[in-house]
Design brief:
single chain; about 1250 residues; mainly beta; 8-stranded antiparallel β-sheet; 5-stranded mixed β-sheet; 20 helices; 84 strands; about 10% helix; about 35% strand; globular; disordered N terminus; disordered C terminus
């Protein structure tokens, strides 16, 4: 027995419990002085616990301190008054005169630390505050606490304490306490069996300044703790800053080196540099045998003078090395530092990967925390900001978006951009995070200090808790206007603010519902305290197996919340390192349950949230399950430890030991990025300010991407590619040499036509001479309405792939800004008609442009819209279209997607396109649809469709009951039309844009509503009047999801579409290009979509939270998302076009993606499947493939239909290739050509060139 006492850091008290077990005295009803009756434990669980202990898998297992049968559950937290708990504490605001300006800084806040400092099994509490260095409260049990500050040796009457952490810095098994100070030395209280002594100086950690938090981690995995000191600004005055500016070598102003902790300059686009206040430098400390050495510069982190508010150690890339996220306030950028491990000199290096890993960050970053929010085994992350949680707070705090005092220029300026809202980074398992704050419902939680993830209801998903409030409402636009407009200098800025009231806000809690969705349960769970709450921590204070909450605040008493939400089960782990640091910081723990079908993952770190540290115990809620099937611990030392069948209802103590092998990691991906010549081509858009012309335009229209078209231009059997270009560049053709090799083929005519903005493009043969010519749609808005530069073009092929401009009169005059093009033989005359979708009217958004149907009458095309399709001439802003035989009558129909409109269905009635949108059930669903593609996803022999839309991850929240609205009209009576966006909140129609933006476009708004308050409380009818709104054009969107249109029949046998949203992970970003094809050769159509949109106005911000998404189909109409780290498909830019081909002739589909203002990306399929790529070439020999149908009959009696279309997706024409599933499972293949003739393909001859069947 005595051997166990040599285990490093194991508390002696816990050995008593251990001995109790091994001596056979274990009893579920045993108690100690701080316990009440335990929950009854089954004999099976009791036996299994004794096995775990006797086998040495766990050292101790303490049953929870509760009686579930007698405990009253209220489905909420219970606030416990200090009269009950003895936690009599208040962070009063009474600074010295020299620090009175700190009223507007982060040091109005105070932290919380939870930990068992005296090893009695109860979690104790330390609270910091502006006076006396903070207080330590000993847990007496039953939610009773005693102030033991003086007796424990902690009291310091001269210290302004801020952030605090319980950590075992010397690995002796007793928790030490580190307390940061403002304008006073930081303190490291070393714990000598419950008595503390400050030894910060002897450890090298007695920094004095504006310390916010010391975040501890073993970043070099050497078994002891290192540290990162986060700081903020100490001097709030700008006076000293202005006196120390010099002119740099480049002529620009600079701050002298010795004053860079006071201020720095930011270069503004097109303007003079702006001077901003700086903060003190942060510091990285390496533990050198108990003394901490500053290694900030040599580590690669460097000196960063920003307003730090949280520092979080976590292993984002799961490589076993702690990485570091720094959240900085105001204009200071956030940093994600990747831990690269030691260099050749043994110095651990860090690399700032923020711009590569993260699409955008909060502008005013505050608290932060990590969690595996979707239980996929990868750590996600959240950083908070100050975005208002309702319309009123949003509009009052928005401030000026225009004018000399506006800081709106900054929104899209940094890399990555900074926006005033929370960010939730979803770990894709690659080097790029997705951003899902809007999607998850966590984007706006008011002035948020603390972010705390924890499974508050023990249901298996980690929920999140937020603290809110500020000393004053410094973001209120009206108050700031009053401050600026003061006529008397008798009151200075500080006195002005001191006379204002505290900005009290409600705290918030959100329940994790799974599938990236959170529900606001603040009121339901009793956590909606109104006040100024700052630091907060989680811990099981009463030993009953759930997480309680301790909250500190500004000028208000601290609060304790007892968790009484429900009776779900949990497991709690107290892990102790041997080779690893004592508390296991840096360890990853996995719990598998429900027959190992479900997984939870935790990562052990110290400071999390804001100025605070929660208990070091690892908490797993398990709902109604009675055990964890497996618990895996991955220690920083590299040791992997595994436990099986662990019963719920206990706190287990586990000591590091190697009892299992490391699990092999699967590194293969389904696709690999190619370095082909096509991947070196870049798409560059010229700069154009759309918003100068239309100030309230929702999105840019000048960068909608250029088309991509595939076709064999030289008759060598290989499909070549045309890459459209924006105005000023000129299109490009790349010749396919076979097996993925391409050469650029210069074309003089494309250079001559560089002034045109290419949109959609297709290869067709309008002159019927046996080679492929090229049609290019002209679009864009960098011109006036009716400009000749909007004329479409046809380029004629000489048969060898050399192109010249088609003769005048080949096309009718079409001086309209077009978008897409699709081709089909509408009237079965053997020639292809063309549908040209009008995209926009330059300078007149959202006016409907003109669309065209062109008919080939031999040597030229004529406008046949009125004859063939009069109903689609001006139906709205067309974004995509596809020809398909929807109803199976062998006449090709047309589906068209619109911005601010429905998906319209035009049925082919013997050569005439007649709108029947309502008959097929599509008339009531309006979206910002971007694209459409076709495929038989449910293997029922008809075509279904994928619809690309904006998605849910946006500030817009459209539904049938609460749609998004847009009005277009004259709202000032001056003949000038303007755009008004509107939304609904609590059944009231409200403006989307704020007072500043609205009045900048329409000055009368400011005249009628001079304050932000008046504007914020007014409905859109009150602002613009019902009469003016009723006279304006009105547009509506009630569906934001990208989804599936399932082609089915109603009771009368008529075609009807059923809309089915795609999985929520697809909704993280707008979907543009899409493709239905069999990726893995299983005979079912899979789906790949490319995403993101950088066009929104800067108040909305970029929509680039996606990385593209692959989904595997099951042949029944359902799709399962594939993680990007498994698919290998990662596209973080503004992806537009998506085309498919088999470029290396291996029978598998490859993807070619166009990205705005970036390089094209080519991904080669690595699947080892027995699939087959069936190519139906038009030329040099064979039937015309446009509109052809291919039926694939499988041995399981399913039938899959394919169609070959020209156009579809988003500005895309893929190669004429159909990808079939496992050819060993195919019974037969039938091709019906557009002329009605058919070929039956012998499956045994699939390896023969398809030309042999012509």
């Amino acid at each position: 027995m005595t051997a166990f006492f040599k285990i490093k850091g194991f508390p002696p008290m816990l050995y008593k419990s251990f001995l109790f077990f091994v001596l056979g005295s274990f009893s579920c009803n045993s108690s100690t002085k701080h316990t009440v009756q335990k929950k009854k434990i089954s004999k099976e669980s009791k036996f299994r616990v004794s096995q775990l202990i006797s086998n040495g898998d766990v050292i101790d297992a303490v049953p929870y301190n509760q009686d579930y049968q007698n405990k009253i559950f209220s489905d909420s937290y219970e606030y416990l008054d200090s009269m009950v708990t003895g936690l009599n504490f208040k962070n009063s605001w009474n600074p010295k005169d020299k620090h009175k300006l700190e009223l507007e800084n982060s040091f109005i806040s105070a932290g919380v630390a939870i930990g068992d400092f005296n090893n009695d099994g109860l979690q104790d509490i330390f609270l910091s505050r502006q006076e006396d260095g903070g207080r330590l409260f000993k847990n007496l049990g039953s939610m009773q606490f005693e102030d033991v500050t003086e007796n424990s040796g902690i009291l310091d009457s001269n210290m302004w304490s801020t952030g605090a952490s319980f950590i075992d810095i010397n690995n002796d098994g007793w928790l030490d306490l580190y307390v940061c100070g403002f304008d006073s030395p930081n303190k490291l209280y070393i714990n000598d069996e419950g008595i503390f002594k400050n030894q910060a100086k002897s450890y090298g950690l007695d920094y004095e300044g504006a310390s916010v938090m010391m975040a501890f981690a073993d970043y070099d995995n050497d078994g002891d703790l290192d540290a990162y000191l986060l700081t903020n600004r100490k001097n709030m005055s700008k006076d000293s800053l202005m006196a120390n500016i010099i002119k740099g070598k480049n002529g620009k102003p600079q701050v002298k080196e010795e004053y860079k902790e006071h201020g720095y300059f930011i270069d503004r686009p097109g303007d003079f540099p702006v001077l901003v206040n700086a903060a003190q430098y942060d510091y990285l400390y390496k533990n050198e045998n108990g003394y901490f050495v500053d290694v900030t510069v040599e580590s690669g982190i460097g000196k960063n003078p920003y307003y730090g508010l949280s520092a979080t150690w976590w292993d984002y890339n799961d490589d076993g090395r702690p990485d570091l996220y720094i959240a900085n306030d105001f204009m200071g950028p956030d940093h994600l530092f990747e831990n690269l491990g030691p260099d050749k000199n043994g110095v651990v290096q860090f690399k700032d990967v923020t711009s590569d890993a993260i699409p955008y960050t909060p502008w005013f970053s505050m608290g932060a925390d990590y969690s595996d929010i979707n239980n996929d085994g990868k750590m996600d992350f959240m950083a908070s900001d100050m975005a208002g949680s309702n319309h009123y707070r949003d509009k009052v705090s928005m401030g000026s978006m225009t004018g000399p005092g506006s800081e709106a220029w900054f929104l899209n300026f940094p890399d990555p951009p900074q926006y005033m809202r929370n960010m939730v980074y979803l770990n894709s398992g690659t080097n790029r995070f997705m951003e899902v704050a809007y999607l998850s419902g966590l984007s706006a939680t008011d002035w948020t200090w603390t972010v705390k993830f924890g499974d508050l209801d023990n249901d298996g998903y980690e929920d999140v808790y937020f603290t809110n409030g500020m000393s004053r409402d410094f973001g209120n636009g009206d108050i700031k206007d009053r401050l600026r407009s003061r006529t008397s200098e008798s009151i200075d800025d500080f006195d002005f603010w001191i006379n204002q009231s505290p900005y009290e806000l409600k705290n918030m809690a959100f329940k994790n519902l799974g599938k990236l969705k959170f529900e606001d349960v603040s009121f339901k769970w009793g956590l909606d305290h109104l006040g100024v709450s700052t630091g907060s921590a989680l811990g099981d204070l009463d030993g009953d197996g759930d997480l309680d909450i301790v909250m500190n605040g500004f000028d208000e008493p601290a609060r304790i919340y007892n968790n009484r939400i429900g009776s779900n089960n949990s497991i709690r782990l107290d892990i102790r390192g041997e080779k690893t640091n004592n508390r296991g910081l840096g360890a990853k723990v996995e719990v598998y349950y429900d027959n190992e079908s479900k997984r939870m993952t935790r990562y052990v770190s110290s400071s999390r949230g804001f100025m605070s540290s929660s208990e070091s115990i690892i908490h797993f809620g398990l709902g109604n399950y009675d055990k964890a099937n497996k618990v895996n611990i991955y220690w920083p030392s590299g040791i992997a430890q595994s436990l099986d069948d662990v019963p719920v209802g206990h706190l287990y103590t586990i000591v590091e030991k190697n009892n299992s092998k490391s699990l092999a990691q699967k590194n293969e991906t389904m696709f690999l990025k190619s370095n082909s010549a096509l991947s070196t081509v870049q798409h560059h858009e010229k700069i154009f300010d759309d918003f100068r012309r239309e100030k309230l335009l929702p999105n840019k229209l000048s960068q909608l991407g250029s088309g991509v078209a595939w076709g064999d231009i030289d008759g060598d059997g290989n499909d070549d590619v045309y890459l459209g270009s924006p105005s000023g560049s000129g299109g490009r053709i790349y010749r396919n040499n076979g097996f993925g090799s391409f050469d650029y083929k210069p074309q003089k005519v494309f250079i001559e036509d560089a002034r045109y903005e290419d949109m959609g493009s297709i290869f067709i043969d309008p002159d019927n001479d046996g080679d492929l010519d090229l049609y290019v749609v002209s679009g864009g808005v960098e011109c006036q309405q009716g400009d000749k530069v909007l004329q479409d073009r046809i380029y004629l092929n000489d048969g060898s792939g050399n192109f010249t401009r088609g003769f005048a009169g080949l096309l009718p005059k079409m001086y309209d800004s077009g978008g897409i093009i699709a081709a089909a033989d509408i009237d079965k005359d053997g020639r292809l008609e063309l549908f040209i979708g009008g995209r926009v009217v330059p300078g007149n958004y959202p006016k409907s442009p003109k669309s065209y149907v062109l008919k080939n009458i031999g040597p030229k095309y004529i406008d046949a819209t009125d004859d063939l399709a009069p109903g689609l001439k001006q139906k709205g802003m067309v974004t995509s279209a596809i020809f398909s035989d929807v109803d199976g009558d062998n006449w090709v129909d047309l589906l068209v997607t619109y911005e601010w409109g429905p998906v319209r269905f035009f049925s082919n009635n013997s050569g005439k396109l007649v709108e029947r949108t309502s008959e097929v059930g599509l008339d009531s669903r309006f979206g910002w649809f971007n694209s459409i593609s076709s495929g038989d996803i449910d293997n029922d022999g008809d075509m279904d469709f994928i619809i690309g839309n904006t998605g849910y991850n946006t500030k817009y929240k459209a539904s049938a009951s609460d749609p998004e609205l847009l009005y277009y009209g004259d709202f000032e009576g001056n003949g000038q039309k303007n755009i008004i966006e509107a939304k609904f909140e609590q059944n009231v129609c409200l403006p989307r844009r704020g007072l500043s933006c609205s009045s900048n476009a329409m000055p009368t708004v400011k005249e009628r509503f001079p304050t932000y308050h008046e504007f914020a409380i007014s409905s859109i009818e009150e602002i613009y009047t019902e009469a003016l709104l009723s006279s304006a054009e009105k547009f509506e969107v009630n569906e934001l999801a990208s989804g599936i249109l399932i082609n089915s029949k109603n009771s009368d046998g008529k075609t009807i579409f059923e809309f089915q949203p795609l999985p929520r992970v697809v909704q993280v970003s707008p979907v543009f290009g899409s493709s239905l094809c069999d990726v893995n050769g299983d005979g079912n159509l899979d789906l790949y979509v490319v995403q993101n949109f950088l066009g929104p106005q800067r108040e909305t911000g970029y929509m680039k939270g996606g990385v593209s998404q692959l989904l595997l189909g099951n042949g029944k109409g359902n799709f399962l998302p594939v993680s990007p780290h498994e698919s290998g498909l990662i596209i973080s830019g503004d992806a537009t076009t998506l085309t498919t081909h088999d470029l290396n002739s291996d029978g598998n589909v490859d993807f070619f993606v166009g990205v705005n203002n970036s390089r094209y990306e080519l991904y080669m399929n690595q699947n080892q499947s027995n699939s087959y790529a069936l190519r139906l070439p038009d030329y040099p020999k064979g039937k015309k493939y446009a509109g052809s149908k291919i039926w694939v009959y499988y041995k399981n009696n399913s039938v899959q239909l394919h169609e070959l279309n020209i156009g579809g997706g988003y500005l895309s024409q893929s190669a004429p290739v159909v990808f079939l599933g496992n050819k060993n499972e195919i019974e037969k293949v039938i091709v019906r050509w557009s002329d009605g003739t058919e070929n039956n393909i012998n499956i045994n001859k699939l390896a023969v060139s398809f030309n042999s069947f012509n």
